[in-house]
Amino acid sequence: MTNPSQTLHTRPRGGRPSAPLRAGDPLPLYHQLKRLLQRSIESGRLLPNQPVEPEWRLSEKYQISRTTVRQALRELEGEGLIYRIQGKGTFVSGAKISQRFVTMTSFTEECIAKGLKPGARVLEARLIPATREMTEALDLAKRDKVIKLSRLRFADGKIVGLNYSFVPHGRFPDLLGEDFREKSLYRIIEEKYGVKITKVKRVMESVQADGALAKILRVRAGDPLLKIDGVAYLQDGRPVDSFLEYYRE
User: Fold this and answer.
1) Same domain (yes/no): 33, 84
2) CATH code: domain of residue 74
3) Are 91 and 206 in contact (CB under 8 A)?
4) Whole-angstrom Cα distance, residue 100 to residue 90?
């Protein structure tokens, strides 16, 4: 049986012992592992787009359960430090401007908090019929309509991303009359309709820019982009925005 104050580590083949995790430490084991991986990323020992060791290997290396490893990786992914590609594994996110905007509720407010000047160019703002995917994501009826809002994102005058938002028209009927160039969509919804957006679920993956995205974001076809697919929810649990975003890497 392991002593609660015992240091947990193994010795990798042909090398020094791995950095220890302490069972008696006030910090949970998952948080200790998260901190070790975060330091490796921030120090440059783990480089952008380099694969992170798989769950089974981290579990074996630090003598902890795979559930503990998954929790550490989930938190790092939520903070934009790593990303997953289905069937390929987990990778380190690059030190790029797109990573500054993956954990916030409002792009505009996050830019301001980081000392950057936010900006947006509205490419499209119109009413469209909801697709089956939209009705499922936004909990709508079959013939409901949504407001489609397409915006090019800027930070300090530089293009950083492209956003598509789909908002239930029935819940926010006067939204199309607003100016989305300077003010965030979520701030407008909260102030105009007296509601609060409290949760955002996101799925992130690295993709290659096709010809159309390359032209809009001013990158080369085939260049890597960070794709974010998600849904924002009100305080009462109702979905308010089904969105798709692409950020330059």
Assistant:
1) yes
2) 1.10.10.10
3) yes
4) 19
The residues, any chain, with a CB within 8 Å of residue 141's CB and separated by 6 or more, are 135
Q: Are residues 54 and 139 in the same domain?
A: no
d(CA 206, CA 230): 15
Number of CB atoms found within 10 A of residue 167's CB: 22
In this predicted model, what pLDDT tens digit does every residue of 23-53 receive, in sequence order? 777 788 999 999 899 888 877 788 877 899 9
Among 107, 103, 132, 105, residue whose Cα is nearest residue 117: 107
Is the CB of residue 56 less than 8 Å from the CB of residue 81?
Answer: no
At 138-189, the pLDDT tens digits run 999 988 999 999 999 988 888 989 999 999 999 999 999 898 887 889 989 9
Tokens (6 digits) for 28: 């949970």
- How large is the angle between the packed helices 29-43 and 66-78, nearest 10 degrees? 50
Q: Are 168 and 146 in contact (CB under 8 A)?
A: yes
Within a 10 A sphere around the Cβ of 242, how many other Cβ atoms? 24
pTM (predicted TM-score): 0.61
Q: Residue 181: which H helix or E strand, with range? A: none
Give the domain extent around 217: 97-248
Q: Radius of gyration of the chain from Cα atoms?
A: 21
173 CB-near residues (< 8 Å, 6+ apart): none
